[in-house]
Fold this sequence. Notes:
The structure holds two protein chains of two kinds.
Chain A: H1 5-23, H2 35-43, H3 47-54, H4 65-76, H5 82-94, E1 96-99, H6 107-118, E2 132-135, H7 140-146, E3 153-157, H8 168-180, E4 185-189, H9 192-196, H10 200-214, E5 218-222, H11 231-243, E6 248-250, H12 262-279, E7 284-288, H13 294-307, E8 318-322, H14 325-338
Parallel strand pairs in A: 1-2, 1-8, 2-3, 3-4, 4-5, 5-6, 6-7, 7-8
Chain B: E1 49-50, E2 52-54, E3 57-59, E4 66-71, E5 76-82, H1 86-105, H2 108-124, H3 126-137, H4 141-162, H5 166-169, E6 175-177, E7 180-184, H6 190-203, E8 207-211, H7 218-229, E9 237-239, H8 244-252, E10 258-262, H9 265-275, E11 281-285, E12 291-294, H10 300-312, E13 324-328, H11 329-343, H12 364-379, E14 383-386, E15 401-404, H13 411-414, E16 421-427, H14 430-438, E17 445-449, H15 453-462, E18 467-470, E19 489-490, H16 497-500, E20 503-505, H17 506-511
Parallel strand pairs in B: 1-5, 7-8, 7-10, 8-9, 10-11, 12-13, 12-17, 13-16, 15-16, 17-18
Antiparallel strand pairs in B: 2-3, 4-5, 6-20, 11-19, 14-15
Amino acid sequence: MLGGLVTHAGEALGNEQMVDDRDEPVAHLPVGSITVMAALVARSNPPDWVRAFAAGAVRIPAVDAVGLEARAAALTGRSIKKASKIAALRLAIECMDLTTLEGTDTPGKVRAMCAKAVQPDPRDASIPSVAAVCVYPELVAIAKHSLQGSGVKVASVAGAFPSGLGPLPTRLDEIRRAIDAGADEIDIVLNRSAFLAGDLARAFDDIAASKLACGAAHLKVILEAGELGTYDNVRRASMLAMAAGGDFIKTSTGKIGVNATPPFALLMSEAIRDHFEQTGVKVGLKLAGGIRTAKQSWQYLVIVNETLGPDWLTPHLFRLGASSLLNDVLMQLRMQATGLYQRPDDFTVD
Amino acid sequence: MTDPTNSNTDAAAPMAARSSMPGREPSSLFRFEYAPALESTAVVSLQPSYGLFIGGRFVKPKNGGSFVTINPATEAPLAQIALADEADVDAAVRAARRAFRSWSALAGKERAKYLYRIARVLQERGREFAVLESMNGGKPIKESRDVDIPLAAAHFFHYAGWADKLEYAFAGRTPQPLGVAGQVIPWNFPLLMAAWKLAPALACGNTVVLKPAETTPLTALLLAEVMQEIDLPPGVVNIITGAGATGAALVGHKGIDKVAFTGSTAVGKQIQSAIAGSGKRLTLELGGKAANIIFEDAAIDQAVEGIVNGIYFNQGHVCCAGSRLLVQESVAELVVSRLLRRIETLRVGDPLDKNTDVGAINSQAQLDKIRCLVQAGVAEGATLHQSAWPLPDKGYFFAPTVFTDVAQSHRIAREEIFGPVLSVLTFRTPDEAVQKANNTPYGLSAGIWSEKSSRVLWMAEKLRAGVVWANTFNRFDPTSPFGGYKESGFGREGGRHGLAAYCQFAEDQAGAST
């Protein structure tokens, strides 16, 4: 039950055929129609649901902003103490995509971050590794090499991140190159230009084509919720990204002012729950941008726990994309163990 | 959860379990348990026994009677409470009468100063009040902390603002105080109901004898201490404790000019007939059986939250609780499945745990009543659904309950249960929704859930209920009038309308022969 539609498609095709697919330019598939979707429908399970989605027959309930925000606030008000805090913080590390997405990223910086990803606290070997590191495609090979044998995944942004407005063939090529360099997971952005212009078929096709380009690699679709204007749009985009084959839906690039928020996390969790009820497919949730404190991390875990349930409290289905969060989590874990706050300099800056 | 022999078994999967987290198999789920997060009771200093607050002092009852108040979540006694009899009621009314002359003569802005002081002290001592409210009444600390106490303070602030502006509240009329008000309040929102009653009465220049419910007297007695702390003139507020007989003695006392009662419809009717012909003014805020109406175009997830808030807030001990769910048949299955899933996540237990969503039922008597009506629901053929959340061994608790397959004729669809029990009915058209919603002896509140504002407004006009919420439920604000139609009572509390219940008008008296 991992991932979305094309996971099944990939299994159906077999690996050889997937390699063939990846060698052929996908761009020849007409864009802005439902051709790619039709190709997926033929190979995926359950096709009826995608067809129903395309026909607008899948019910996407409205969102009441006041009620959504009130519920999110109630959930973030949970008081998480002692043993439950420690367990939550350890899980937050296990679900973390340690991220650096700066124009100034260098091999040296990425190597240092990878070392931290494998062993977050050199003084405490019991601290688990993070789930993945997330980098730009040019640095995937460095990360892959640094993480060899660790089990930590390499995630790469691709597809003209963060705008998503490069030519589609270029975006798909970027995905394939990142995978060739060793990426296990690909984070692309929703085509907000098409989505906000009302061209949902095109937004859908871009994702579906990206999923084909990913092959066996997991695809995370960044909605950039802070740019979509309404909660209704965030729900619609969530359903679209899942229908098009996203294995994860992700809140944000971290490149704009409004990133992951509790209401977005709650709303996208509800959309994932709806998709699961309609298709039986479990899609993951990744929250990214602005998550800096340990408290935020357990607040998000509470939202997922009480909306999607414990099935989603695993790195297979939940990720926190962050850079500075890890040290705050480590500091809080040390605080729980010793009763004292350590100096910031007691935790490595990488 | 960590079984090293299981590592790498997942290696074939696209996102295999890593060696650093051995055995993270689907069968060994991470269970996110919330450790107890108890609010400390150290902030509350309970006395072993409490007297009656008469004439600015705590005094012993004349016949020495008393009763014990308990914590319904533990059944442990909290304090000995004085039992007021007729002689004590008489003393309290005389104290209020003595204080009336000077209090009513005080300039509005001076009365306002006292009300502002009360409001500020409620804020300053908010934690103490909240903890005590949860200890004595069983409501979750997050509700007493975030709803009851802040709203009580807000009511005093609101009416403090009116005290020097009364002549602007009623155009062309000159408001005057009534005299002494006898006020009897229920156990579901003990401090908040005291605030609803006291604030407008005092702002208008009346003096008061207040009787809190016998199961929840403690925050009212703490409020009496606040009255001393802010130097409220003696006798302006008198607080007497006791059960039904004390309340009957108060409303029947010849020395009071006005009766305000919040509680059951049965008692309300008794009061109305007892004081008939006495010339006493009366406002009643009684029971309810509110319809919470969900249309197919509603924001379903938020509507489900609204249903939960409507019926499980304060264990359903809310006169305006949304105890009848009317859901459009086309989405009934979806809404009910969401709701049944949602009630499993309601955390029932210790009211002082900050993560508790549903606390203790207020008393053994109320628990018995809820059980009796739930049994009636089952006997009449409705389908019972209950949360599987484990209930504490001690104390009065009842699992969040939903009845489906309910007919309009069932007792659980007609009678006020005053507990965490929801009856689900369906409708097909807006007309049918209105008809079913209004088909009740009560008329206190209603809720409408729809994304279509024209329909919301159309419905609101046709619903015979004192409060109609749109896309929300159980929201209270001191500026908004609250009160009922039909057997839910008469008179309004809150806002400018709430002042009218505590005023008479010079113009009316000039025209009257009496």
